[in-house]
Write a structure and sequence with these properties.
Strand content: 15-25%
Shape: globular
CATH class: Alpha Beta
Number of strands: 15
Radius of gyration: 17 Å
Order of helices and strands: EHEEEHEEEEHEHEHEHEEEHEH
Helix content: 25-40%
Largest sheet: 9 strands, parallel
Structural class: alpha/beta
Number of domains: 1
């Protein structure tokens, strides 16, 4: 059975604790939730951190506490920091890169979100990519629009990343790219034309989570993404009990497609990362 990387986005920057108490917010909660997801089959964790008032934070000390706990309790798991912008000063979005996580998310263009414009100007994108390269952090390119694939190509041409980036298509954000299967086919076709060596995955927001996982697996994706950052429910009538529950739903989808969850070592090889210490 061909392995697939299961990425779990544990928290996010949207204040959802009040909507679903299972969303982990403190570093201790995040480490425990990540460990449960790891035991369920996740091999990559995508991390946002929160201030004590639950607002989004760029504090490297908070990232360091989560990173330390994951390295201790989840051997080999890929640690990916968010450099996303909701509620964070653009100048501080890359502050935690000095901690040298395995990976960091990198959006290569701006896009409309439900109540804001998620701004990723060319200078900011270049700055974040430069800092990732300097610290040996592998980017995951977040694609919210077709043009963002070409933004990634420009970073390759500038020597800021190699020809084999890991790319994630984000579908179902209100005001951005709808979660429609034919759009994923278009995006994937363009990715294969522009960055033919890229690995890829896709994230579906809210009720779109499982259908996007199915579409991605149908097209041979290198991985899938799940987690409470993107979706706090398992059905219209029931909240998800944990990130681990969502990971188990993803592993069941892999099984339906004749795939299995990649081990951390396999995930590292697939995404071009060094073996864990």
């Amino acid at each position: 059975m061909t392995p697939a990387v299961i990425a779990v986005a544990i928290t996010g920057s949207v204040p959802r604790k009040k909507d679903n108490p299972a969303v982990p917010v403190t570093p201790a909660e995040q480490v425990e939730s990540t460990h449960q997801a790891y035991e369920a089959g996740a091999s990559l964790v995508h991390i946002h951190v929160r201030n004590p008032d639950e607002s989004p934070s760029s504090d490297p000390a908070l990232f360091a506490r989560v990173q330390e706990g994951v390295l201790k309790h989840c051997p080999g798991m890929i640690v990916q920091f968010s450099t996303g912008g909701r509620g964070r000063d653009p100048a501080s979005r890359g502050n935690a890169l000095v901690l040298r996580p395995d990976m960091a998310s990198l959006s290569t263009g701006s896009v409309n979100f439900p109540a804001i414009v998620y701004e990723n100007g060319a200078a900011l994108v270049t700055d974040l990519a430069t800092r990732m390269a300097a610290h040996g952090v592998r980017p995951e390119i977040e694609i919210f629009d077709l043009s963002h694939i070409h933004g990634a190509r420009r970073l390759v041409e500038a020597g800021l990343m190699d020809e084999r980036p890991h790319v994630q298509f984000v579908m179902g954000v209100r005001n951005a790219m709808p979660a429609e299967e034919h759009l994923l086919a278009i995006l994937l076709g363009e990715l294969r034309r522009v960055l033919p060596k890229a690995t890829w995955t896709a994230a579906g927001i809210g009720a779109n989570q499982m259908r996007v996982i199915e579409w991605a697996l149908r097209r041979g994706a290198d991985g899938v993404r799940t987690g409470l950052e993107d979706n706090i429910r398992v059905s219209r009538d029931r909240l998800a009990s944990s990130n681990a529950e969502l990971v188990r739903l993803a592993t069941a989808a892999l099984d339906r497609h004749g795939r299995r969850a990649a081990t951390p070592m396999e995930a590292r090889r697939m995404l071009g990362l060094a073996a864990a210490d």
